[in-house]
Structure formats: structure tokens, C-alpha cells
Amino acid sequence: MIMSFTFLSFAYLLKQHLYMELFKTTVVEGLFIGGWLFLWEAFSLFFFSSQEIRAKLKRYYRFIDGKISFHYE
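Now predict its structure.
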């Protein structure tokens, strides 16, 4: 999230203070896209991946609490 806010802030400041030419516009738009991409990745890791981790932990706790016995015939 820090990288996202850094990219977005830097792009916003550059957009305000630079005379826009083709190359500079491309760089600023790239910073905006990169900032939003980093922000989306942070949210997806926080919300979506945490559900998978919770499900794995729940499964592991169920295995730990289960009784294991071996029967030889």
C-alpha cells in the first residue's frame, strides 16, 4: 500500500507541475496505473488470500484435535 500511495502521489504531483509531452504523459499514466495496480494487489492479498489462510488453519486445527490410532492386523 505504501508503494501504491507513493506512485499515486508522485504521479499527481508530476501531472500538476510538468508541461505534458508525449513521453511525460506516458510516464505519468504509467505511474497512475502502477499505483492502482499495487493498491489492488494489496487489497486482494488482504481480503482474498486471508480467507484461504483461515480455511487452511481451520483444517490444520481439525487435524491436530483429531484422534489418531493405528490398528495392525
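The CA atoms of residues 47 and 65 lie 27 Å apart.
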